[in-house]
From TrEMBL:
Alphabetical list of PANTHER family matching this protein: ELECTRON CARRIER/ PROTEIN DISULFIDE OXIDOREDUCTASE, ELECTRON CARRIER_ PROTEIN DISULFIDE OXIDOREDUCTASE
Protein known as: DUF547 domain-containing protein
Record-annotated DUF547 domain positions: 73-175
Species of provenance: Hymenobacter roseosalivarius DSM 11622
Keyword Signal listed: yes
InterPro entries, A to Z: DUF547
Length: 243
């Protein structure tokens, strides 16, 4: 074949080959966002019944959670991954046992059940502590992790992504700390009732009493809590965050 004709055939084939190439698979964050937007309501409650009926998307996400290469990821990529992995793993554990009134009805839900995350076997508590709390020392993670209870912060319908992670955590923290169902100032009693999360993880916030009010007010510029208020804790609602 004449060289000129060969070059022409190659030139014609290359665009066609590009058209026939399979589209790139969505990233874990993008796939998780699509899943959350489909099954999580604006109030943060999860349609577990619908996921149970059509589990293919959840199963695909859980496979990615299991096979993710954390060692090859950057610090921000790992942090975003483990935040998303926590929420997806919890949803998966609930769906597997659904219908379910509360995760507290499952013995060892947080500290006995083992899950594969990035090739490692771990409990949900180990995922939270060893992969997020200890490595990053960022109390905002407590407002991003949702343990399938109504007492938790509202589950975001947007997955966390490395490129926008800090802004997402700041926005999520502000949403949670200005939510009147989560932070409950009482002007008449001159006190503020807060989630027991602040008691269980007091060391993470390094902010008991008045110092905790200062922490909250960093995200409540429009509705600051007076520094003279006392701090109290309302009972955690462990009923399933379904809807």
């Amino acid at each position: 074949m004449h060289p000129t004709r060969l070059l022409l055939l190659v030139a014609l084939w290359l665009p066609l080959g590009g058209l026939l190439a399979a589209p790139a698979a969505p990233s874990f964050a993008a796939a998780t966002s699509a899943f959350l937007q489909k099954y999580v309501r604006a109030d943060g409650n999860v349609n577990y019944a619908a996921i149970k009926k059509q589990p293919a998307e959840l199963k695909a996400l859980l496979q990615t959670v299991q096979s993710f290469d954390a060692k090859a990821a950057s610090a921000a990529e790992r942090k975003a991954f483990y935040l998303n992995a926590y929420n997806v793993t919890v949803i998966g554990a609930v769906v597997e046992r659904y219908p379910l009134a509360s995760v507290m009805k499952v013995p060892g839900f947080f500290d006995k059940l083992k899950f594969t995350v990035a090739g490692e076997q771990m409990t949900i508590n180990e995922l939270e502590t060893n992969k997020l709390r200890k490595p990053y020392n960022d109390p905002r993670i407590h407002f991003a992790l949702v343990c399938a209870a109504k007492g938790c912060p509202r589950l975001s319908r947007e997955a966390f992504a490395a490129a926008t992670l800090d802004a997402q955590l700041a926005a999520q923290t502000k949403r949670v700390l200005t939510d009147p169902t989560f932070i409950r100032p009482d002007a008449k009693a001159k006190k503020v009732q807060v989630s027991e999360i602040f008691k269980w993880y007091a060391a993470d916030f390094k902010a008991p009493g008045p110092a905790l009010i200062h922490y909250l007010n960093q995200y409540r510029a429009a509705q600051p809590i007076p520094a003279t208020y006392t701090v109290d804790y309302y009972a955690y609602d462990w009923s399933l965050n379904e809807g």
